DNA sequence: CTCAGTGCAAAGGATTTGCATGCCG
DNA sequence: CGGCATGCAAATCCTTTGCACTGAG
Protein backbone atom coordinates (compact mmCIF):
# COMPACT_ATOMS: atom_id res chain seq x y z
CA UNK A 1 0.00 0.00 0.00
CA UNK A 2 0.90 3.67 -0.27
CA UNK A 3 2.22 3.97 3.27
CA UNK A 4 4.71 1.21 2.69
CA UNK A 5 5.74 2.67 -0.62
CA UNK A 6 6.42 5.96 1.09
CA UNK A 7 8.39 4.18 3.76
CA UNK A 8 10.62 2.42 1.29
CA UNK A 9 10.96 5.52 -0.85
CA UNK A 10 12.07 7.47 2.19
CA UNK A 11 14.45 4.73 3.21
CA UNK A 12 15.91 4.64 -0.26
CA UNK A 13 16.53 8.35 -0.36
CA UNK A 14 18.01 8.51 3.11
CA UNK A 15 20.37 5.67 2.35
CA UNK A 16 21.33 7.25 -0.94
CA UNK A 17 22.15 10.43 0.92
CA UNK A 18 24.68 8.29 2.83
CA UNK A 19 25.83 6.64 -0.39
CA UNK A 20 24.39 3.36 0.73
CA UNK A 21 22.24 0.93 -1.22
CA UNK A 22 18.78 -0.24 -0.26
CA UNK A 23 19.46 -3.94 -0.60
CA UNK A 24 16.89 -6.70 -0.29
CA UNK A 25 18.15 -7.51 3.21
CA UNK A 26 17.80 -3.93 4.33
CA UNK A 27 14.37 -3.65 2.81
CA UNK A 28 13.33 -6.84 4.57
CA UNK A 29 14.54 -5.47 7.90
CA UNK A 30 12.62 -2.24 7.41
CA UNK A 31 9.55 -4.25 6.48
CA UNK A 32 9.87 -6.41 9.56
CA UNK A 33 10.19 -3.34 11.76
CA UNK A 34 7.14 -1.75 10.14
CA UNK A 35 5.10 -4.91 10.60
CA UNK A 36 6.17 -5.31 14.22
CA UNK A 37 4.95 -1.82 15.09
CA UNK A 38 6.96 -1.86 18.30
CA UNK A 39 10.63 -2.05 19.25
CA UNK A 40 11.91 -5.56 18.69
CA UNK A 41 15.07 -7.41 19.60
CA UNK A 42 17.47 -8.96 17.14
CA UNK A 43 16.24 -12.52 17.83
CA UNK A 44 12.65 -11.37 17.27
CA UNK A 45 13.66 -9.60 14.11
CA UNK A 46 15.35 -12.67 12.67
CA UNK A 47 12.83 -15.26 13.84
CA UNK A 48 11.35 -15.34 10.35
CA UNK A 49 14.23 -14.17 8.24
CA UNK A 50 16.71 -16.68 9.58
CA UNK A 51 18.54 -16.60 6.27
CA UNK A 52 20.29 -13.35 7.05
CA UNK A 53 23.49 -13.74 9.06
CA UNK A 54 23.47 -12.15 12.49
CA UNK A 55 26.47 -10.03 11.66
CA UNK A 56 24.86 -8.78 8.47
CA UNK A 57 21.70 -7.89 10.33
CA UNK A 58 23.69 -5.88 12.87
CA UNK A 59 25.66 -4.21 10.10
CA UNK A 60 22.53 -3.37 8.13
CA UNK A 61 20.75 -1.96 11.14
CA UNK A 62 23.80 0.16 11.90
CA UNK A 63 23.72 1.51 8.36
CA UNK A 64 20.00 2.17 8.62
CA UNK A 65 20.51 3.90 11.94
CA UNK A 66 23.23 6.17 10.57
CA UNK A 67 20.91 7.04 7.70
CA UNK A 68 18.16 7.98 10.14
CA UNK A 69 15.77 5.23 9.11
CA UNK A 70 16.10 3.08 12.20
CA UNK A 71 16.50 3.91 15.85
CA UNK A 72 18.15 1.67 18.37
CA UNK A 73 17.00 1.74 21.97
CA UNK A 74 18.42 0.08 25.05
CA UNK A 75 15.87 -0.70 27.72
CA UNK A 76 17.75 -3.25 29.77
CA UNK A 77 20.72 -5.51 29.58
CA UNK A 78 20.18 -8.45 27.27
CA UNK A 79 19.18 -7.35 23.80
CA UNK A 80 18.96 -3.89 22.34
CA UNK A 81 15.74 -3.11 20.50
CA UNK A 82 15.21 -1.60 17.07
CA UNK A 83 12.34 0.47 15.72
CA UNK A 84 11.72 2.78 12.79
CA UNK A 85 12.94 6.32 13.33
CA UNK A 86 10.43 8.48 15.14
CA UNK A 87 9.95 10.89 12.25
CA UNK A 88 8.60 7.95 10.26
CA UNK A 89 6.21 6.69 12.91
CA UNK A 90 5.42 9.84 14.89
CA UNK A 91 6.48 10.83 18.37
CA UNK A 92 5.58 8.19 20.91
CA UNK A 93 6.62 6.63 24.19
CA UNK A 94 7.26 3.15 25.50
CA UNK A 95 5.34 0.80 27.71
CA UNK A 96 7.94 -1.55 29.16
CA UNK A 97 7.23 -4.85 30.86
CA UNK A 98 9.80 -5.33 33.58
CA UNK A 99 9.13 -9.03 33.62
CA UNK A 100 9.40 -10.22 30.00
CA UNK A 101 10.98 -7.08 28.58
CA UNK A 102 8.32 -6.55 25.95
CA UNK A 103 8.02 -2.97 24.74
CA UNK A 104 4.95 -1.38 23.18
CA UNK A 105 4.32 2.12 21.92
CA UNK A 106 1.89 4.61 23.31
CA UNK A 107 1.11 8.26 22.74
CA UNK A 108 -0.01 10.98 25.08
CA UNK A 109 -2.13 14.02 24.35
CA UNK A 110 -0.36 16.80 22.52
CA UNK A 111 -1.40 19.01 25.37
CA UNK A 112 0.62 16.98 27.85
CA UNK A 113 3.50 16.80 25.39
CA UNK A 114 3.49 20.56 25.23
CA UNK A 115 3.47 20.88 29.02
CA UNK A 116 6.38 18.49 29.14
CA UNK A 117 8.36 20.41 26.56
CA UNK A 118 7.79 23.67 28.35
CA UNK A 119 8.73 22.26 31.73
CA UNK A 120 11.83 20.54 30.39
CA UNK A 121 12.96 23.62 28.50
CA UNK A 122 12.70 25.60 31.70
CA UNK A 123 14.76 23.03 33.57
CA UNK A 124 17.77 23.09 31.27
CA UNK A 125 17.57 26.84 30.79
CA UNK A 126 20.94 28.34 31.64
CA UNK A 127 22.59 25.03 32.51
CA UNK A 128 24.57 24.70 29.30
CA UNK A 129 22.75 21.48 28.51
CA UNK A 130 21.35 21.44 24.98
CA UNK A 131 18.21 19.30 24.95
CA UNK A 132 17.60 17.12 21.92
CA UNK A 133 14.55 15.07 22.83
CA UNK A 134 12.79 13.52 25.78
CA UNK A 135 11.87 9.97 26.62
CA UNK A 136 8.88 8.99 28.69
CA UNK A 137 8.63 5.31 29.59
CA UNK A 138 6.02 3.56 31.63
CA UNK A 139 7.43 0.51 33.39
CA UNK A 140 5.26 -2.21 34.82
CA UNK A 141 3.89 -5.66 34.10
CA UNK A 142 2.19 -6.54 30.85
CA UNK A 143 -1.07 -8.45 30.54
CA UNK A 144 0.69 -11.71 29.69
CA UNK A 145 3.02 -11.53 32.68
CA UNK A 146 0.42 -10.20 35.13
CA UNK B 1 26.11 14.14 59.44
CA UNK B 2 22.60 13.03 60.27
CA UNK B 3 21.55 12.39 56.69
CA UNK B 4 24.37 9.97 56.15
CA UNK B 5 23.66 8.24 59.42
CA UNK B 6 20.10 7.74 58.32
CA UNK B 7 21.27 6.42 54.99
CA UNK B 8 23.56 3.84 56.54
CA UNK B 9 21.00 2.92 59.17
CA UNK B 10 18.45 2.33 56.43
CA UNK B 11 20.93 0.34 54.39
CA UNK B 12 21.79 -1.76 57.42
CA UNK B 13 18.19 -2.61 58.16
CA UNK B 14 17.31 -3.37 54.55
CA UNK B 15 20.27 -5.68 54.22
CA UNK B 16 19.45 -7.35 57.50
CA UNK B 17 15.95 -7.99 56.23
CA UNK B 18 17.65 -9.95 53.46
CA UNK B 19 20.01 -11.61 55.94
CA UNK B 20 22.93 -9.76 54.49
CA UNK B 21 25.68 -7.90 56.31
CA UNK B 22 26.58 -4.26 55.82
CA UNK B 23 30.29 -4.79 55.24
CA UNK B 24 32.90 -2.09 54.89
CA UNK B 25 32.94 -2.58 51.11
CA UNK B 26 29.20 -2.24 50.84
CA UNK B 27 29.21 0.81 53.05
CA UNK B 28 31.94 2.33 50.91
CA UNK B 29 29.90 1.73 47.77
CA UNK B 30 26.82 3.33 49.30
CA UNK B 31 28.96 6.28 50.41
CA UNK B 32 30.40 6.67 46.95
CA UNK B 33 26.93 6.63 45.40
CA UNK B 34 25.70 9.20 47.91
CA UNK B 35 28.66 11.46 47.23
CA UNK B 36 28.29 11.15 43.47
CA UNK B 37 24.68 12.33 43.63
CA UNK B 38 24.03 11.00 40.16
CA UNK B 39 24.06 7.61 38.44
CA UNK B 40 27.63 6.42 37.98
CA UNK B 41 29.27 3.61 36.07
CA UNK B 42 31.34 0.87 37.59
CA UNK B 43 34.66 2.42 36.47
CA UNK B 44 33.62 5.74 37.97
CA UNK B 45 32.58 4.02 41.15
CA UNK B 46 35.90 2.26 41.54
CA UNK B 47 38.15 5.09 40.41
CA UNK B 48 38.97 5.87 44.02
CA UNK B 49 38.32 2.55 45.71
CA UNK B 50 40.49 0.55 43.37
CA UNK B 51 41.18 -1.92 46.16
CA UNK B 52 37.83 -3.66 45.74
CA UNK B 53 37.81 -6.36 43.08
CA UNK B 54 35.52 -5.73 40.15
CA UNK B 55 33.66 -8.96 40.77
CA UNK B 56 33.10 -8.07 44.41
CA UNK B 57 31.79 -4.67 43.46
CA UNK B 58 29.32 -6.22 41.05
CA UNK B 59 28.30 -8.78 43.64
CA UNK B 60 27.86 -6.16 46.34
CA UNK B 61 25.82 -3.90 44.12
CA UNK B 62 23.62 -6.85 43.22
CA UNK B 63 23.06 -7.54 46.92
CA UNK B 64 22.32 -3.88 47.56
CA UNK B 65 19.92 -3.82 44.65
CA UNK B 66 18.02 -6.87 45.87
CA UNK B 67 17.78 -5.22 49.29
CA UNK B 68 16.31 -2.11 47.71
CA UNK B 69 19.19 0.19 48.59
CA UNK B 70 20.62 0.60 45.13
CA UNK B 71 19.05 0.88 41.73
CA UNK B 72 20.68 -0.11 38.50
CA UNK B 73 19.82 1.70 35.31
CA UNK B 74 20.81 1.06 31.73
CA UNK B 75 20.96 4.13 29.56
CA UNK B 76 23.02 2.84 26.66
CA UNK B 77 25.31 0.02 25.76
CA UNK B 78 28.66 0.28 27.45
CA UNK B 79 28.34 0.48 31.20
CA UNK B 80 25.29 0.16 33.39
CA UNK B 81 24.88 2.90 35.97
CA UNK B 82 24.13 2.67 39.66
CA UNK B 83 22.39 5.10 41.98
CA UNK B 84 20.75 4.99 45.38
CA UNK B 85 17.19 3.72 45.37
CA UNK B 86 14.66 6.42 44.61
CA UNK B 87 12.93 6.19 47.97
CA UNK B 88 16.21 7.26 49.53
CA UNK B 89 16.86 10.19 47.22
CA UNK B 90 13.36 11.20 46.19
CA UNK B 91 11.65 10.82 42.84
CA UNK B 92 13.67 12.35 40.05
CA UNK B 93 14.51 12.07 36.37
CA UNK B 94 17.62 11.90 34.27
CA UNK B 95 19.44 14.33 32.07
CA UNK B 96 21.44 12.21 29.65
CA UNK B 97 24.30 13.42 27.49
CA UNK B 98 24.20 11.49 24.25
CA UNK B 99 27.81 12.33 23.58
CA UNK B 100 29.74 11.39 26.73
CA UNK B 101 27.01 9.40 28.42
CA UNK B 102 27.02 11.43 31.59
CA UNK B 103 23.78 11.30 33.56
CA UNK B 104 22.53 13.90 36.02
CA UNK B 105 19.39 14.08 38.09
CA UNK B 106 16.63 16.63 37.77
CA UNK B 107 13.20 17.08 39.25
CA UNK B 108 10.03 18.53 37.81
CA UNK B 109 7.21 20.29 39.61
CA UNK B 110 4.90 18.04 41.57
CA UNK B 111 2.11 19.53 39.52
CA UNK B 112 3.57 18.18 36.30
CA UNK B 113 4.29 14.86 38.00
CA UNK B 114 0.65 14.64 38.93
CA UNK B 115 -0.47 15.44 35.40
CA UNK B 116 1.85 12.75 34.16
CA UNK B 117 0.54 10.17 36.60
CA UNK B 118 -3.04 10.93 35.70
CA UNK B 119 -2.38 10.80 31.97
CA UNK B 120 -0.39 7.58 32.22
CA UNK B 121 -2.99 5.92 34.43
CA UNK B 122 -5.61 6.74 31.83
CA UNK B 123 -3.51 5.25 29.08
CA UNK B 124 -3.06 1.83 30.65
CA UNK B 125 -6.63 1.74 31.92
CA UNK B 126 -8.25 -1.45 30.72
CA UNK B 127 -5.20 -2.71 28.85
CA UNK B 128 -4.18 -5.30 31.41
CA UNK B 129 -0.88 -3.51 31.89
CA UNK B 130 -0.11 -2.88 35.54
CA UNK B 131 1.99 0.28 35.81
CA UNK B 132 4.75 0.36 38.37
CA UNK B 133 6.57 3.63 37.73
CA UNK B 134 7.44 6.02 34.97
CA UNK B 135 10.73 7.29 33.65
CA UNK B 136 11.25 10.66 32.08
CA UNK B 137 14.64 11.28 30.53
CA UNK B 138 15.92 14.34 28.76
CA UNK B 139 18.51 13.48 26.14
CA UNK B 140 20.89 16.03 24.67
CA UNK B 141 24.40 17.39 24.92
CA UNK B 142 25.95 18.42 28.21
CA UNK B 143 27.86 21.63 28.79
CA UNK B 144 31.24 19.90 28.55
CA UNK B 145 30.44 18.24 25.24
CA UNK B 146 28.62 21.20 23.74
C1' DC C 1 34.75 -23.11 64.02
C1' DT C 2 31.74 -21.67 60.36
C1' DC C 3 30.08 -19.20 56.76
C1' DA C 4 29.77 -15.15 54.11
C1' DG C 5 32.78 -11.95 51.53
C1' DT C 6 36.70 -11.56 48.63
C1' DG C 7 40.13 -11.94 44.72
C1' DC C 8 41.53 -14.03 40.65
C1' DA C 9 40.77 -16.31 36.60
C1' DA C 10 37.72 -18.28 33.48
C1' DA C 11 33.16 -18.37 31.43
C1' DG C 12 29.03 -16.11 29.28
C1' DG C 13 26.38 -13.42 26.14
C1' DA C 14 25.42 -9.60 22.99
C1' DT C 15 27.65 -7.19 19.56
C1' DT C 16 31.59 -6.12 16.44
C1' DT C 17 35.26 -6.99 13.31
C1' DG C 18 38.57 -9.46 9.90
C1' DC C 19 38.73 -11.71 5.91
C1' DA C 20 37.55 -14.29 1.80
C1' DT C 21 33.81 -14.78 -1.43
C1' DG C 22 30.04 -13.55 -4.42
C1' DC C 23 27.03 -10.43 -6.55
C1' DC C 24 25.02 -5.89 -8.02
C1' DG C 25 25.56 -1.93 -10.66
C1' DC D 1 35.36 -4.98 -13.70
C1' DG D 2 35.21 -2.80 -8.98
C1' DG D 3 33.39 -2.31 -4.76
C1' DC D 4 30.07 -3.22 -1.48
C1' DA D 5 27.26 -6.72 1.02
C1' DT D 6 27.49 -11.11 3.00
C1' DG D 7 28.78 -15.30 5.87
C1' DC D 8 31.61 -17.39 9.02
C1' DA D 9 34.64 -17.35 12.65
C1' DA D 10 37.27 -15.01 15.84
C1' DA D 11 37.65 -11.11 18.81
C1' DT D 12 35.67 -7.57 22.18
C1' DC D 13 33.64 -5.79 26.11
C1' DC D 14 30.83 -5.75 30.16
C1' DT D 15 29.28 -8.73 33.49
C1' DT D 16 28.78 -13.14 35.91
C1' DT D 17 30.38 -17.35 37.89
C1' DG D 18 33.62 -21.05 39.95
C1' DC D 19 36.70 -21.88 43.33
C1' DA D 20 39.88 -21.51 47.01
C1' DC D 21 41.02 -18.47 50.76
C1' DT D 22 40.41 -15.43 54.61
C1' DG D 23 38.46 -12.82 58.11
C1' DA D 24 34.60 -11.61 61.12
C1' DG D 25 31.34 -13.18 64.56
Percent of residues in helices of chain A: 40-55%
Q: Report the uncertain regions of chain A.
A: none
- Report the principal-axis shape of chain A: globular
- Mean pLDDT, all residues of chain A: 92
Number of strands of chain A: 6
How far is it from the N-terminal to the C-terminal residue of chain A, by CA? 37 Å
| Rg for CA atoms of chain A | 17 Å
Spell out the helices and strands of chain A N to C. HHEHHEEHEEHE
Q: Helical element count of chain A?
A: 6
State the assembly state of the protein chains.
homodimer
Strand order of the largest sheet of chain A: 1-3-2
Q: Largest protein interface?
A: A-B, 36 and 36 residues
Largest sheet of chain A: 3 strands, antiparallel
Structural class of the secondary structure composition of chain A? alpha+beta
Task: Summarize the model shown.
The structure is a homodimer of 146-residue chains. Chain A is of the alpha+beta class and 146 residues long.
What features would you describe in this structure?
The structure is a homodimer of 146-residue chains. Chain A is an alpha+beta fold and 146 residues long. Chain A has 6 helices and 6 strands. The first copy, chain A, has helices at residues 2-17, 24-36, 42-46, 54-66, 86-89, 110-124, and strands spanning 40-41, 70-73, 81-84, 93-97, 103-106, 130-141. In chain A, the strands form 2 sheets. A 3-stranded antiparallel sheet of chain A has the order 1-3-2. A 3-stranded mixed sheet of chain A has the order 5-4-6, with helices on one face. In chain A, a hairpin with a 7-residue loop joins strand 2 (70-73) and strand 3 (81-84). Chains A and B meet through helix 6 and strand 6 of A and helix 6 and strand 6 of B. Strand 6 of chain A pairs antiparallel with strand 6 (130-141) of chain B, so a sheet runs across the interface. The structure holds a DNA duplex (25 and 25 nucleotides).
Amino acid sequence: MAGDDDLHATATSRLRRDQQRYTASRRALVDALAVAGRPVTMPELLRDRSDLALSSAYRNLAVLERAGVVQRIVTSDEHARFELAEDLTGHHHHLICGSCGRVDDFRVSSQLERSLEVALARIVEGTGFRADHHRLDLVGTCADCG
